[in-house]
Amino acid sequence: MLLNGRGLFVTYLYPKMRFCILLLVGLFFHNLCSAELAEQEREDLKKPAHLQDLAYGEILYDYYRGDEISALTHILIAQKKNNLPNHTNSAELLSGVIYLNLGMLSKAQTIFNRLLTKEDLKNELLAKLEFYLAKLHYKQRDFADAKRRLTGVYDVLEVELKDQSLIMLSNIALYDKDLETARSWLGQISEDSELLAYSRYNLGILWLTSGDITNSLPYLEKVYTTIEPTDVQRTLQDKAKVALGFHYLKSKDFDTARKYFLGVRLDSSYTNKALLGMGWTYVENQQYEKALSHWLELANRDIRDIAVQEALLAIPFAYQKLKAMKPALENYLEASELFQTQIEMITEIEKQVSEGQLVESLVLKLIKQNEISTADENIQDSKLFGDEYDYYLYELLAQNHFNEGFRNYQKLGRLALMLDHWEQQLPMFSEMLNANQLRFDEKIPQIDAYIQKDSVAEFEKYYQKILHDISEVEHLRSLHLVASEEQFEIHTRLSRLEERLKNIPHSMISAEQREKTKRARGVLDWQLQDNLAEKIWGLNKESTLVSQSILEMRSRTEKLASARSYALTRFVGYQQLIDDGAEKLSRLRLSIKGQVDIQSDYIKQQILAVLRKRKATLNHFLLQSDLSIARLHEQAVFIPEIEE
User: Fold this and answer.
1) What letter would DSSP give residue 423?
2) Nearest partner of 607 among 407, 411, 394, 408, judged by Cα
3) Full-prediction pTM beyond 0.70?
4) Closest CA to 175 of 142, 151, 218
């Protein structure tokens, strides 16, 4: 029967009063529960964050599901609305990470520099941010800043990231031709690092090109140090052996050169160069038959490989040396035809790249295959024209700076699509604004009617009635107001009986019956006075709460009236903000289009430069074959095979 500790008096007051009192008490306690929390201490970025702000939870949800743009948008909105009192720095740091992932280096760097001190960077978690920032500088060939950042944090990082840092530092030293420093950095890399092979190879090649074979051999003879090398590491070792083989071939140490060429795996991508080099080691010793055995094997391989193309010229040269003029002429003619075919193919690629929209169409196709996102997992490395054409570009496609440029080009394209998507959404914001304005206009008459009705005055009238009833109880009158349901029912029946007795003549009712009625009333009044002081105390306590609730309602009504007058201007300026947003999006789209055009032209120029170089090589081979054919034709009258 009792609702709660504060609702005792409800069961004792007559039913008409219950609803309004419950409403007033509820409003009062709702106000107590909405009090603001005290400001929390400033968070420590070096410790794991315990989620305290709902807005930050929404941000993390978007970020960890890969929607970085949405996460960044929510960060900016939450910062504008001050919805991150407990995660201000963490959210800003996360925005820096997102800017870093998007390639917006200056924005990320500004945030990191503001939030992170040298002491902070001794923490592994925060040192990772400095590492990734340095890595981005490294990819953009800003080696000075990359070196400065890496040297400050590499010894704090976990083993894998530390190895990557040392690799980058060694490569920076190699770029500066500081071989001793590069060797020093490489010496700190863990022996089982997959990346170690790259820097050992680069360092060995630099020693080799400088003529220092003694220092280069320890690195090139053993590029990798792991027990179970990967295919990439084995391929790098093959490349090193080919480099050593041609070094000794140039030095006319043919036996040593052959030893390195023979060390190349048969299924390696460098087998062709090894076969070509093997042939030349025999030619230098005038062992043309042995040279031919290697070159003829090489001639059966992919014609697009430059080693195979060179072999096509070397084979008839060897036949000439063996005085076999007929096969020499036939092979020169076949080589000339093949070179011409390859030149035509490259010319067709050049035309598609320079005159058509091949690169642009490819990137648009890649972008539309995935959702509108700039996350790295949705960005593909370059695969431009299919295997038939890409073979000529494999050296370019294998270069990190080209792939980074190609990936950035895709990201720019994605950003352009996002801006188009956002521009398409802007009319919806205008519609939302209009819909809210209409709904607001519909609510205004209801609010005005509520304010004019002054419902608080009605509650105050009920409250005065409550005070009067409590006073009656205090003066031992109207005790039925504190009756239980059972007692109230008895009171009602007695009241009806007493009313009837008044209207019945005395002669019709015996004195005994009238006395019984009075005794019943007396017993009821005696029961109602049981614990009366406690009941009156409870009623006074609850009446105080009701009074406070009425005051709160009066205050809220006044605030509602104030807000109503202010709300007339609440939509002012929003349409201007939408229009300004549309203008900004338009400017951004034009800016991104300009960057897209620049990046597209940069990629095209790199591709065309490679194609021109390969075309020039083929033209040189074609010229050599045609000149050789011409010379053989001049000597044709002296060729016994032809005279027969």
Assistant:
1) H
2) 394
3) no
4) 142
Q: Is the pLDDT of residue 600 over 90?
A: no
How many whole angstroms from its chain centre is CA 200? 34
Q: First CA to last CA across the chain, in angstroms?
A: 128
In terms of C-beta distances under 8 Å and separation of at least 24 residues, what long-range contacts does 613-617 make, across chains too? Answer: 614/306, 614/346, 614/392, 615/343, 615/346, 615/347, 615/350, 617/306, 617/309
Cα–Cα distance measured from residue 470 to residue 466, given in angstroms and rounded to the nearest whole number = 6
Two structure tokens written together for 610: 């490679």
- The answer to whether the CB of 547 falls within 8 A of the CB of 460 is no
For the ranges 20-24, 46-50, 261-265, 505-509, the lowest mean pLDDT is seen at 20-24
Chain center to CA of 580: 27
DSSP track, 322-360:
TT-HHHHHHHHHHHHHHHHHHHHHHHHHHHHHHHS-HHH
Q: Tell me if 191 sits within 8 A of 227, measured CB to CB.
A: no
The H-assigned helical ranges of 454-484 are 455-474
Using DSSP, state whether 289 is helix, strand or coil: helix
CA-atom Rg of the chain in angstroms: 45
Tell me, rounded to whole angstroms, the distance of Cα 518 from its chain centroid.
86
Amino acid, single-letter form, for residue 81:
K
Helix (H, G, I), strand (E, B) or coil at 279: helix
Banded pLDDT at 20 (limits 50, 70, 90): very low
Structural domains of the chain, with CATH:
56-115 (no CATH), 124-229 (1.25.40.10), 364-442+574-643 (no CATH)
Q: CA 442 to CA 436: how far, in whole Å?
A: 10
What is the secondary structure of 135-181 as a DSSP string? HHHHHTT-HHHHHHHHHHHTTTS-HHHHHHHHHHHHHHHHHTT-HHH
Q: Which of 144-148, 250-254, 450-454 is the least confident region?
A: 450-454
